Amino acid sequence: MTGVDAEGRSCIVDVVEVVPKPPAEGGHGVEVARVFATTQSPPPRAPALGDAVDVRLAPGMLRWMVVEHPAYDPDGPPSTSTSIHHSDALDLVFVHEGGGELLLQDGAHPVSAGDLIVMPGVDHAMRGGPGGCRLVVVSVGTAPPEAP
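^ thats the sequence. predicted structure below, dont judge the formating
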């Protein structure tokens, strides 16, 4: 789970091993592990410091995407994926194939196939690993934070 620290920098705020629990009575044998839940819709996002990217997603609207990050080339041209940015969206990310690094303001965090990432509009970037990275992303539009 990503969030912001006391200085407003994006960081990892929680790491949880996802372990499905035995079904509750009447659960018909299905095991469930809650990864993330909101308490309001749409959830608010924290103020951010990086460049804003307009994802054209109104508050409360939903978008489901497959995002391909090519293998990172340090000698290649910069791209949005490798420049710290944020959007007015809550992104629920599943690393489907490959891996790389999730770049937050507290540093680079390795990600690999099977990882789940919750990004509530925080500053971030992604570097694909040697084989690139395929993400499945569900985004929910959020309102920008209110100005102080």
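The CA atoms of residues 59 and 143 lie 5 Å apart.
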